[in-house]
Write a structure and sequence with these properties.
globular, 204 residues, alpha+beta, Aminopeptidase, disordered N terminus, 6 helices
């Protein structure tokens, strides 16, 4: 790392410490949220392989357990929820043509996302997952941006996602990343509604 950047990081870390000691918790959290963006080599994204089946299953299931608790989802009313993800499910995803990308922080897997292209010009962003201990540090946004860049390189015009309709916090987060609200639908096998959102890629 160049000395100037290293010095800048030291100043930022000292500033966070000073804010924390001053009791300015909100400002401290905001600075800590942005610090990972100044560490370009600490987080890396790589394409997953079949050897990563256990890692992907762990990342998806552990990252979605809090969502299951929040919306009262269990093996009886929503057996296919990502909080119950298994290696067999990941293997089925890969066999169907999905591509997984794993986000690592200093070689530790902390998140993942799946990419699917059901037809020319359209892509799905599936199962975005970040472990709870690593949230609010830009990890999820990094994964979404990676999918956007990947889709653009393949001349995709639209990225589509489906999220829990009642999960308005998540929808607002996707809005900030460029996704627009689409229709909301209900399905008889799901105990929640599904909100569809899309991201247009100019020049895709």
């Amino acid at each position: 790392m160049p000395p100037a950047i290293h010095l800048c990081l030291l100043h930022l870390n000292f500033l966070c410490l000073a804010l924390h000691c001053s009791g300015l918790a909100s400002l401290t959290a905001e600075f800590e949220r942005w610090l990972p963006f100044f560490h370009p080599h600490s987080m890396k994204i790589r394409e997953a392989s079949h050897a990563d089946l256990p890692t992907i299953a762990m990342l998806v299931s552990e990252s979605n357990k809090d969502v299951a608790v929040r919306f009262g989802l269990n093996a009886e009313n929503c057996p296919k929820h990502p909080s119950f993800y298994t290696e067999n499910w990941v293997q089925a995803d890969l066999a169907r043509g999905e591509t997984y990308f794993i986000l690592e922080d200093q070689s530790e897997p902390i998140g993942c996302v799946a990419y699917e292209c059901p037809r020319p010009g359209l892509a799905y962003l599936n199962r975005l997952s970040v472990l709870p201990a690593h949230r609010n540090k830009g990890a999820g946004a990094r994964l979404v941006q990676h999918i956007v860049q990947h889709a653009r390189s393949l001349s995709v015009q639209t990225i589509s996602i489906g999220v829990i309709g009642e999960h308005t916090d998540l929808q607002r987060w996707y809005n900030k990343l460029g996704f627009k609200d689409e229709e909301t639908r209900r399905f008889p096998h799901l105990p929640f509604s599904v909100k569809y959102m899309s991201h247009a890629l100019p020049g895709g």
